[in-house]
Amino acid sequence: MRIGLDYRPATCYPNSGIGRQNLALEQASRANPNVQLQLFSLAPEDHVIRRKAHCPRWGAPLSGLHRLPLRLKFEAGFLPGALREADIQVYIANFNMGLPLGRKPEGMKYVLQLHDLFQLTLTNAHGSQLKARVYGYTDKLSIGWSVKVADRIWTPSQYTADEVIKLFPQARGKVRVLPNLVVPFSGELADLSDLQLPSRYWLCVGTREPRKNIPWFVAAWQQARQQDANVPELVLIGAREHLPAEQQHLQGLHFLSDISDAQLQALYASAARLWQPSYAEGFGLPVIEALAQGTPVAVASGSALDEITPPDSPRFSPTDTPAAVTLMKALALDQPVDHRALKVWAAGYGEQAYRQRFDELLGELH
Fold first, then answer.
1. Which of 185, 233, 257, 330 could form a disulfide with 198 if both were Cys (CB 3.0 to 4.6 A apart)?
2. Span 237-265, mean pLDDT?
3. Which DSSP state fits 350?
4. Whole-prediction pTM value?
């Protein structure tokens, strides 16, 4: 089977969540002996990716992935002809949109990996109201088109699958779940002594997007600390300016950014608990990364976090402050933890499970 993979995310943003899943699709394809993989991407004229991927003759900046003129030029002007010339049988796009524009060649099948629909259903962080309106309109058209022409839609959770069906009922029969690959950290834990963190702390990862619900969580945490001195200090992986001014300098609150993978691994491993208070998540990568280190988690209910978290892990409403405060005080003291069981759960999102499911879904397309 000759598979074409949209390689723009891995080319432009390899360390992003979508970029990493782009690489996971590449590696799973190469591991399947029945697959001949071809990559398709945008890149500057002198970029090394041109040695391994089909690229237009014209160059494009690495920051241009989401710029509409470049996308249209690639998806309508370059991609259809390039796919035909490479005799592609299955083409996979994995950043919520991006399938070729125009008539689909006879015999070719399209797969859309749709991580979430928050671009359409939530208010997201943009530089201005005008930019938010423009992106909202173009995202609606682009995602709608890709959902329409896709033969299969792969989502990382049943939650996202249900959201797709709710918004696009006509796509019900082509939606499948492919849980994200969570690659284990490798190497030794970093020395965190230079970060001057407390000996015991709770951890949250991600502050920028409103759906991460961090200001609400910090307010609840502050209340809990005022009521119970045993509530640990809080470390946030993200920028201080993403929080309201009145929360940016709270006692016991620490901000970290621009950290290495080794530091992140050590932060997970040293945390007393990871909290994920998001009111909307299509998957929840930090949860699995923390569990893989044997670190217990507590998550907000109502999204994909319900699926990816062990059944006996604490859960809380992302809007009920008194209940969250009560839970924090209950978990303020060290709890007995079966570290091995948490690591085993996380392994269910590892390479072996991912490739097995990928091969199953690919088999449907024969």
1. 233
2. 95
3. S
4. 0.93
